[in-house]
Write the structure tokens for this entry.
Amino acid sequence: MTSVLDARGIVMTFQNGDEFTRVLLGVDVTLDPGELVALLGASGSGKSTLLSVVGLLLRPTAGVITIGGERVDTLSDAKSSLFRNKRLGFIFQFHNLLPDFTALENVSFPAAAVGGGINSAIRQRASELLARVGLSDRMNFPAARLSGGQKQRVAIARALMNRPELVLADEPTGSLDRASADQVLALMREINREDGTTFLICTHDERVASRCTRRITLRDGQIDSGIRDKTS
Amino acid sequence: MFAFLVARRYLRSNPWQTALLIAGVALGVTAFVFITALIQGLAVRLTDDVTAKSAHVSLEPADRVARVLPSSDYDTEAVALVSMLQRKQIRTWAATVALLESQAEVTAISPQITGSAVLVRGEAAAPVAVTALEPKNLDAISPVSREIIAGDARLNANGILIGVRLAETMGLSVGQPVLFRTDRGIDRLLVVEGIFRSGVQSLDERVAYISLETARPLFLLPSGVTNIEIKLKDTGQARAFANFVSGATGLRATPWQDRNSSLADALTAQGQTGTLIQIFSLISVLIGIASALSLSANRRRSEIGIMRAFGVSRLFIASVFVMQGLLIGIVGASLGCLAGYGLCGWLATFTKPDGALALPIAPAEGGYGLVFLLTTAGAVLASVIPARSAARLDALEAIQQ
């Protein structure tokens, strides 16, 4: 079975003038289809950097990244953009939605921007996704008028718009109250279970990690442990 | 096109800023239209003023030069000299007039004898430039009869029309005789039939009109004329028509522009000044667009980062900002053209007591098509800088901000 993600020997070094900061020191990560993986670690451990590298938002200093069997660390800017659009989904803690657009338009955006507009197929898919995240009645609401939990559910729907193999979530519940966080987490688990979509969730929240099928902990730029938790 | 929808939504999301931006563009375009209409109107008025009272094309005999005569004797060479006493004239003027009358663009033809003379009354003497013409053609080139302030403009065989300042200088009034002495030394007593006031001092004290038949014996031109003056429907065609007539008749044809080169220079300088003002008003419009869109791009950094994260191309991001520039340019230029036309039309309603426009403005000549194209194209160009900077944003950096 082909891994959804296979990252080998990932090194990430940032340069600031003459100063070099090594954030990732040869990280190996493999995700199988249908996994819901928590990426844990203290602040500065490199987990957000690893998420950005895996999401093709940062090019690693060294290492090889394969997603769905395709090597992606050497793609050009235009090709990696297209790859992100077609095969990856992103959920962020802040700045989730485009405030001047409705919930439906936000969800449609990844497909519409590449496909030339919101056609009937895109509209239908976006409507289905919004219904799935429980926001059928908020489709034409401006994003700016949605609550925090609703915004994050719209962001989840948007991440799923192009049927990605891998969804990368960076502290998806970090800015939500407990009830909203539980709703969002339950939703991600449901999608993971029902669709088999693989999730890599960067978090420092033990409650989130405990509901994932596996956890990866980073410490000082290296993998600390990998535990498959099948009880959650 | 989805980028167009996004651009429109961005502009609508901040209506006051967009309205101010469009108002700024419209104001610049209005200024452009006003300056263009004013300069064009001024040029038309100056040209009209000059061409209304003068010929559009003047025909004169070609310059005579000494020429070598053919000879069979190799030892001698004969040269035909030019007589300085012989007056230059157009002998075949009737045929030339017939040719001119067949041309559709010609509106008036006036064969004339022009020369110098001295008016003598008692001990007073004054030099005058004489224009002799057929009485029926008196108003063909310049509306002389409309400028008569005393007497009439019948121009009888022994009559003369003189300017008001000449009349005052010599103490002449209508009906009084005056001795007319030509540059050929021939005298004749003429009667002042009319006194005119052209409003141009040099004309009012130096010009006199007599009839063509009266002038023939006085200037020793029994059958010819010295020049033929022509008016055309379109003054702009004067140079081309002059070339045509010159080729057809062998006469020297001079368009009005060559006789008023200082006017042409003034119009050119005026046009260049107007162009500079137009360029500066357009530049200010473009700087406004570029700075406003740059601010917008900066304010939307995080949104651009999100878009880039879910795979929207740099080209799409850039096209959103270019579309905003295009929309601002189209709407601003349209409103500016309308406002400019309205302003010029309103200013054109103000007239002086004599009925002339208070401001020589030509509302139809505002350069609307040009300014619309320049503003729209310029707005697109001005948006390229913020578009490029938005497209170059690093997604991760923008999201983290």
About this structure: The beta strands of chain A are 5-16, 19-31, 36-41, 62-67, 70-71, 88-91, 166-170, 198-202, 214-219, 222-228. The first strand of chain A starts at residue 5 and ends at 16. The interface with chain B takes residues 52, 55, 57-58, 77-78, 81-86, 88-90, 92, 95-101, 109-110, 112-118, 158-159 of chain A (CB under 8 Å). Chain A has a mean pLDDT of 89.
